[in-house]
Amino acid sequence: MVGLALPIVCSQLGLIAMQTTDVIMLARLGPDYMAAGSLGFAVYFNVWLFCLGILIASASLVAQAYGARDYRGVRRSVRQAFWVALTLALPAMALIWNGHHLLLWAGRDGAVVDHARTYLHTIVWGIPFSLGFLVLRYFVSALSRPKIVMVALIGGALINGLLDYLLIFGHLGFPALGVAGAAGATAAVHVGLFLTLATFVLRDRQFRRFHVFARFTRPDWQRYLEVWRVGLPVGVTVVAESGLFLSAQLLMLRLGTLNVAAHAVALQITAVAFMIPLGVGQAGQVRVGQHFGARDVEGVRRAAWVAAALGCGFMACTATLMWLAPGAVVSLIVDPGDPQLLPVFNLAVSFLVVAALFQIFDGAQAVMSCSLRGLCDTAWPMALAMTGYWGIGFVAAYLLAFEAGLGGIGVWYGLALGLAVVAAALTTRFSLRRRLGLLDRHRLSALPSRAARTET
């Protein structure tokens, strides 16, 4: 598990490092630019996450087929995941292009929304390549070869940092583009990531034999719809969680730019920490899917609980750090010696202390959600997530912030409550997997028998 999880975790850190670099560099331009970049990315990220959630179904389908040695099923799943990605690309771009209207609807205008619109109109051009990269990423990870993804994303993060330096501030003769420079750097890196991984899949012997790009135009409606059936609830689930945090940012807008900037800092720190259990959970999803495909019930149990122990153990460490030394952590992003940023620093520290309360819950819900996806159990987890995040988390955030008068701190208490409820619900569902029929053989009816595992 550790051997598979470590490259996936490093890949997640490389991915979030790009946004963290953007926040750090935009902070040097002032709170308005940092708030605009944060809000613009939040809108983009929620649309992108919905697409990711749908496409991540291909990881479960590929892992199950690979575990059953159904190599034709592997190829079918990857090809149809590409078609799903193409189906998603155009509406996703339209939503991102018009995302600034959401900020206007939330009651924000002026420079912050203008800068956020510029950010969205620039980063949108990387979406088709980003979705294609996701399909290839899940393909190679489902076959237990995530190291190339790790190398690509770490390299992409380094290139993104260099491009940020050149394009945000205008060094070495480049134009100073501000938020457009940050967005353009990210879009360019997504193009490079897709081309890098596509070249690897075409040249590597293990992946070349699947011919995922051959006869690409042949329709396979059964597998295409299967990707949607498994993936759509996941897309709704991840957007329900991310949308909770986006809604928290919109609530912060009502409290002022200072709260938005401080929230962005605390959220970025928790997002970096979250990448660890998320990466571990994705490794668990692959292993659960492979064992499920091989009809190894004990392997399913072992993979899920090992992933849970690793993910929650790490989050216990981050919770301790955030509780004992929040100022030191926040100072990695915001300079407390800058008088302009000192109010942001102080408020972000108070938010981070509250964030420490839900770290273990956040890790548990991430890992358990991924383990259930490995079993292609996505509809009920979606319902549980919607109830916990919105029926409890958002309502509590609003009431505590405005009715109870706690302000930004109240928003973060509401987030903590919602995550705790979802973590408990998903853990209970996986614990009852036998009683709920999640391991029944009829759920593997799409896979061939062991005697039929021949075609490559």
Automatic annotation (TrEMBL):
GO molecular function, one term: xenobiotic transmembrane transporter activity
Entry keyword NAD: no
Compartments where found: Cell inner membrane
InterPro entries listed in its UniProt record: MATE_fam, MATE_MdtK, MdtK-like
Highest rank taxon of the organism: Bacteria
Signal sequence bounds: none
Species of the source: Tistlia consotensis USBA 355
UniProt keyword annotations, A-Z: Antiport, Cell membrane, Ion transport, Membrane, Transmembrane, Transmembrane helix, Transport
Listed name of the protein: Multidrug-efflux transporter
Biological process, per Gene Ontology: monoatomic ion transport
Entries under Pfam families matching the protein: MatE (PF01554)
Keyword Cell inner membrane among UniProt keywords: no
Any one GO cellular component localisation term in the record: plasma membrane
Main subcellular localisation: membrane
Membrane topology summary: Multi-pass membrane protein
TM segment ranges: 41-68, 80-98, 118-136, 148-168, 174-202, 227-248, 260-281, 302-324, 344-361, 382-400, 412-432
